[in-house]
Design a protein that fits this description.
By secondary structure, this protein is of the alpha+beta class. It folds into two domains: 31-136, Rieske [2Fe-2S] iron-sulphur domain (Rieske Iron-sulfur Protein), CATH 2.102.10; 150-350, Naphthalene 1,2-dioxygenase Alpha Subunit, Chain A, domain 1 (Alpha-Beta Complex). It has six helices and 17 strands. It has helices at 3-6, 163-171, 279-282, 286-295, 301-324, 335-350; strands spanning 24-29, 38-42, 45-51, 57-61, 75-77, 80-82, 89-90, 96-98, 118-121, 124-128, 150-159, 185-195, 199-208, 230-239, 242-247, 251-261, 264-274. The strands form four sheets. It has a seven-stranded antiparallel beta sheet. It has a four-stranded antiparallel beta sheet with strand order 5-6-7-8, with no helix packed on it. Helix 2 packs antiparallel against helix 6 (335-350). The two termini are 28 Å apart. Bound molecules: FE2/S2 (inorganic) cluster and fe (ii) ion. Fe (ii) ion (FE2) is lined by residues 169, 175, 179, 307, 311. Fe (ii) ion is lined by residues 169, 175, 179, 307, 311.
Length: 352
């Protein structure tokens, strides 16, 4: 069996394959959840996220059991979610806790909607969709998020495409061809792939345009003329259902997935520029280092957004071609992509 045939084995079509729901997915950034409920969708399930008066995050099915309207159109009242229509309130467990026009002999209706395990960690809202035990599994997290030696940039990605197209895009570094004008990396060469039923690690060698060894090197993110190619290892990992990568010592990038349905995917790309090379900086007071980190927040956002536009265009064309003719066969030469497809199928079956 050659590589291109492997991707077609099993009756499970990779372009319609479901997710393993018994893992932590990212549905929003912390900053998006303020004092109003927010509607999100994770693999066809409509969910409302809200922050109570103590700042704690909760998530419920986005449906008022009284008349099935969206609870996300309501508001937060004393740590409960109040429906916009008749003002019934629901607590964090999804139980009806108040009806404004309850008559003297009437009891609260015994209705209850689903609540989901949810937590706020490293700048994002992580949600566990399945019925499995969420305490047994930890969300991936971003160790660099609060670390003073890393400057973060965040960009949201929305595409009309199955999540498999996006993860294949970011695991196949030969697609650097598409981004030549952004000078992200050059001449990637796959050196090795390791895979098991939880992750795929692909090791490439590449040329980076950036070297962060002087404090002013950060300006390379804005001025292409300052960039010089130099060889670096480029590692990309599909740590199902998310993605992590490192380019030499200077950059780490994560992609946190929120698959919406079979033809729609949301994700967050988080880019970290390392300040590890600046030992003098590390001797300065924490307050000052925090100031440097915070002032440079989102310095690579424009770069990320430029890359995203190009990637989304390709992903949406792939999805469209698939929907128009499901029998068209791809030719795959990068064994990383084959390993990624195998993992997607394995995880789907694991979650059933
Ligand atoms: S529909 Fe929600 S309170 Fe009536
Ligand atoms: Fe890309």
């Amino acid at each position: 069996m050659n590589l291109s045939q492997v991707s077609n084995k099993n009756n499970l079509n990779i372009r319609t394959c479901g997710i393993n729901p018994n893992l932590w997915y990212v549905v929003a950034t912390s900053a998006e959840i303020k004092n109003q409920p927010v509607a999100v969708t994770l693999w066809q399930e409509e969910i409302v996220i809200y922050r109570d008066q103590e700042g704690k995050i909760h998530s419920l099915e986005d449906r008022c059991p009284h008349r099935q309207v969206k609870l996300s159109a309501g508001k937060i009242v004393e740590n409960t979610l109040e429906c916009a229509y008749h003002g019934w309130c629901f607590n964090e467990e999804g139980k009806c806790s108040f009806v404004p026009y309850l008559e003297e002999k009437q009891k609260l209706p015994p209705c209850k909607i689903r609540s989901y395990p949810v937590q706020e960690l490293d700048g994002f809202i992580w949600l566990f969709l399945g019925d499995g035990d969420s305490n047994l599994i930890k969300p991936m997290g971003l160790p660099e998020w609060d670390h003073l030696n890393y400057i973060a940039s965040v960009a949201e990605l929305n595409c009309q495409g199955h999540f498999s197209y996006l993860i294949e895009n970011i695991m196949d570094m030969y697609h650097g061809h598409l981004h030549d004008n952004y000078q992200a990396w050059a001449t990637a060469k796959l050196e090795n792939v390791e895979a098991n039923n939880h992750r795929v690690d692909a090791y490439y060698s590449a040329q980076s345009y950036y070297k962060i060894d002087k404090i002013w090197s950060i300006s390379q993110l804005f001025f292409p003329a300052l960039r010089r190619l130099h060889p670096v290892p480029l590692t990309v990992s599909y740590i199902y259902p998310h993605w992590a990568s490192s380019l030499g010592n200077d950059f780490k990038i994560y992609c946190l997935f929120c698959p919406i349905n079979e033809t729609q995917t949301k994700a967050y790309l988080i880019h970290f520029t390392s300040l590890n090379a600046f030992w003098r900086l590390h001797k300065l007071p924490v307050k000052f280092r925090r100031f440097v980190k915070d002032s440079l927040f989102n310095s690579a956002k424009k770069l990320l957004e430029g890359l995203i536009i190009q990637d989304v265009e390709m992903i949406e064309q792939e999805q469209k071609a698939f929907l128009e003719n499901k029998k068209l066969r791809n030719f795959e030469l990068n064994r990383t992509v084959v390993a990624v497809q195998k993992l997607i199928r394995q995880q789907f079956l694991l979650g059933k």
